[in-house]
Amino acid sequence: MATPTSSFANLSPSLLANPELCTIDTCPLDLASFEYIPSLPGNALYVSLFALFLLVQLYFGIRYRTWGFLAGMIGGLLLEILGYVARIQIHFNPFSEDPFLMYIVCLTIGPAFLAASIYLTLSRIITVYSPTLSRFQPRTYTIVFVIFDFFALLLQAAGGGIASAANDDSLSQIGINIMIAGVSWQVFSLGLFTVACLEFAWRVRKAREEDLNQQVEFVELRRTTRFKVFLWVLAGATLAIFIRCVFRCAELSEGFDGRLANDEVTLMVLEGAMIVIAVMLLTALHPGPAFGGSWADATWSIRGAKKGHVVVEKQSA
């Protein structure tokens, strides 16, 4: 919460001791969560958009049985909705700590769930092209990046809780530092994921036709426009979340009293709009129809590879 920076000579000692008793009429915004009143229309718009995306994701997820992808999207979208609902509550009562805590935690960790859904797609893309072209087993990518994502989520959630509930600047800074570590780890994970995708794309580009045709059941799928566009959509969604994470790192590095933390326009663009873009892309071209209904069929692991021979075995997702 903002640190008082102006004179409070005429302010009641009880209000100074407990800002949650304040109202707009009795206290300055120096004692509030932000140095501004969150926009009601802007935050309500984001709540509406994320709620709409959630309904569409539920429809596609159930229809095409993309359960793992759906779980990540539901988790991320629910947290985004809760985060912006909290900002609406702050609009009506900027001095309450509970909505601020909910806002910080939900909007900080929400994108980690969305990133997990993105990570689940790489192993399936590898299967569609050819597991023999992959540097690692397809499922290895999913396991590694989901573990990375979970670690980032834990750091962000723990840091957000500590920072928001702290009663002194020292403890608050510890929480902020933990949050920065979590978001920074997420930036690293997304960057590494991008490198892994680019490396596999290079291997596909240099591959022989016979290597690509080993997965005969997916040859026609790879040639479809919707699948090719989905690959670009995935890249766009990853970039949008990456930009948001970089912004969040910069914002947290300044603390809750910093310029970025108290600039709603920047927040609405680099936090809210980036996540809207990512979710819109992943909803408009959902992996269910993009994979032609073969999402479950593309869930494979590679075992027992010897002398270039690969045994492909189906696994559950």
TrEMBL record:
An example GO CC term for this entry is: fungal-type vacuole
Q: How does it sit in the membrane?
A: Multi-pass membrane protein
Q: Which UniProt keywords apply?
A: Membrane, Transmembrane, Transmembrane helix
| Protein's cellular compartments | Membrane
Report the principal subcellular site.
membrane
Spans traversing the lipid bilayer: 44-62, 69-88, 100-122, 143-166, 178-202, 229-247, 267-285
- Ion transport in keyword set: no
PANTHER family found in the cross-reference section: PROTEIN RTA1-RELATED, SPHINGOID LONG-CHAIN BASE TRANSPORTER RSB1
Write the protein's name: Sphingoid long-chain base transporter RSB1
